[in-house]
Each structure stands twice: as C-alpha cells, then as structure tokens.
Amino acid sequence: MKIAVLIPDINNNSPCSIRAKNLYLPLNDYSGISVKANSVKLCFRNSLISNKNQKIIYRIFGKIPLMFIFYYFNIIQKMLKTSDFIISVNSSNCITLFYYLLLNFIKIKYPAKITIMDLGDPFAFNPVNNRNKVFMYSMMEKYLINRVDCLFVTTEQTKSLYINKIKKTKKIFVIEQATTKSNDKTVINDIYDGKYFKKNKINLLYTGRFYKKIREPYEFYKALEAIYFKTDEIFNLVIIGNIDNPFIPKKINFYYQIHATIDNEYICNLQRKADVLLLFGNDSQYQLPGKIFEYAGSTTRVLSIINTTTDLSIPIVKKFNLGKYCFNRSSDIQEALEDIYSNYLENNYQIKKNKKIEKGIYWIDRREEIKNILNLFHYE
After folding, report:
1. How far apart are the C-alpha atoms of 209 and 278, rounded to whole Å?
2. Alpha carbon of 199 to those of 196, 237, 257, 340: distances in Å?
3. Closest CA to 89 of 15, 162, 142, 169
4. pLDDT per residue as tens digits for the range 74-126
5. How far from the centroid of its chain's Cα atoms is residue 62's Cα?
6. pLDDT in tens, 243-268
7. At what angle do helices 330-346 and 218-227 cross, to 10 degrees?
8. Are 163 and 172 spatial neighbours (Cβ–Cβ below 8 Å)?
9. In what order do the strands lie in the sheet with 150-153?
C-alpha cells in the first residue's frame, strides 16, 4: 500500500503542518505502508532532489511562487503515479489550491487512484475569512469534494455540513486533532529564569492567537485586572503567539508577558510546566482549537473560556476532567480565577496536576484510525 501525501508547507508551526507531520509521515512505521510526502517548499521524504539543490531552487524560484510551483509539478506527478492513495492536506492559500487542482488532474488521468482530502479547518466555514473569501473557497470546495473519493474532517459538526454539500454518496470520516505523547525526561532550563514563568506565582499560559469577533481576550483582561491586587498579585499571565496589536493589553494593572510563536515541541513542554492553561473558544460551532488536545496531554489544569453553550471544547473538558469552563464574561472569569486562587492556597501554594491520559488524545491513536480506513478502501 503506497500513499502520496501533499502538504502545503511541512516546515512551519501551523495546525496544518503539525497535523500532517504527526498524522501521515509516521505511517511509514506501519508494516506494509509506504509513505511519500511532498510540499511546495521541500520534497520532504524519499525526495528526488538533493537538499543542496532544493536550497538553490528555492533561492531562484522562492520569490516567484507560480514558477516555483510549476517547477515541482512534474516531480510531484511522478510520485503520484506510483501511489495507491493520494492525500491532500488542507491549508487555505494558493499553494493548497494548486495541490487540489493537481489532485483533481490526477483523478481525471488516473481514475482508479483513491483520492482523499484532509480538510482540517474547512475553507468555507472558517470564520476568520471575509465574505469574498468564504464565497470563493465555498465554490472551490464544492467542486473539489465532489471529485475525490473521501473526506477527512476534524469534528462531527463539520461532517454534517459537508454531507449536505456533496451530491453523490461520499465517505466522510472524522479524524480529530491530537497531541504527541509527552517526554517526561525533557528539561527546559529557562522556565524559571524570568523569561516565561515565575516562582511563587500562579503562571497562566495561553498559546495561540486572537481573532476579532471570534476569539477575543478583552473580558479576560478586565477580570484579571479586577482581582489582581485582591489576590496579592499572584497571577503571571504568559501569552505565546503572533498577537495583533489590538489584542495586546493596554493601560492595565496586572503583570503579563507576550512572546512570539516558538517551536511546537517547546510550547508543549511549557504547557506541562505551567500552572493553568487558558483556552479561548471560537464563536463558531464547527471548529475546535487543536490545542485542547495539547492541553489534555500536558496534565496541567485548564480554564476554558467559552462563547456559546455549543462550544466543542466542553465535552472534552468534561470527559477528561481537564479543569473548568466559564462564559466569556468578566464576572464569570473573575469567579473562576478566584476559585483557582482559593485552591492554590488550600493546596500548599500549588495547583494540582491532572491525571495522565493514556489513550484517545494522541497522534498514534489517530494513525490507527487512518490505517483502518485505508484498509477498508484497499480491500474493497
């Protein structure tokens, strides 16, 4: 069984790349499965081009995306010809559009090949996009999903949406996001040197971004400021992510740090060392932030700040007893923070950790699901 995986950019920390690297590339470790992966910037595994030549090519074509893409067309096509399955991983940009068009071309030329789209966060239902983008992506998706054999999505809610969009009977499988099993031997030397966390403080950590009218931190800032001095200035807020200027706290009376996005493995280690992890829910019933699984794997307590009663993080917080959730209102958040402070005092100035979750949230679990699905097609 040979699989070709098309990935927009394997070398960044986007949810798409993290999903691709952890879900598909390790399938090579399974007996009888051979995986080749390709991205526009690099031929990642079993490459037909040496690393040295890749760098030269990128310097020549990197600033001219279309030329760069068409240079790779023949290389990718050779890889696809020898594959039984072709999986294209979603990322909403022109590179992915190229991959989908290529995948569509292969489907026409080689109709016997099984083509799969891993939608991840769907184009058409991404609340970050403006109306013009939503319309364009919706038209593109509607055409493409009716050309491929199978869809992978991340939630049951998204699956129900696509069932209504597909003309013919189509196999749609839910493959949730996940996280990597922690390495307890990993040591971060600068955790308590003031760069991130502080001793004798309750270190609140948020890793991610904020979006206007979708995922906003203003009510949280208001709540933290209201109780900061009442709780002996005990809270240390740490935000790691590419935070736009409107979401940076201004004229406030509490201590905080903001750091740029860092390597995902390093972020996961920080999540394990924090006292409380903050999760800001989307104002959308179709998307679940993948970081909830990272948080679940960290054993650190979670405060999930939700916008709606249908927030998809609620069942996960309950199922794995990750912590608590509250509505994105300053009064509710203030109450939750006061409760955290009380527990801190009652437990000898520390926040208790969660029990380690053994199964159900890790990429290895998801790869088993993928393997079973591919076997269904393989033996049909």
Report:
1. 12
2. 10, 13, 15, 17
3. 15
4. 666 777 777 888 887 875 555 556 666 676 777 788 788 888 888 876 655 55
5. 26
6. 988 899 887 888 899 988 888 788 88
7. 50
8. yes
9. 34-39, 2-7, 85-89, 114-120, 150-153, 171-174
């493409």: which residue's tokens?
144
pTM score, two decimals? 0.81
**Rounded distance between C-alpha atoms, residue 46 and residue 54, angstroms:** 13
359: tokens are 């199964």
Q: 39: which strand partners? A: 7
**Token pair 């949406």 is at which residue?**
161
Token code pair at residue 316 = 């996960």
Unique residue bearing structure tokens 């290895």: 364
Q: Which of 71, 51, 49 is nearest to 62 (CA)?
A: 71
Closest to 48 measured CA to CA, from 16, 17, 82? 82
Structural domains in the chain, CATH included, are 2-178+362-378 (3.40.50.2000), 202-346 (3.40.50.2000)
Which residue, chain included where needed, has tokens 């989908």?
Answer: 100
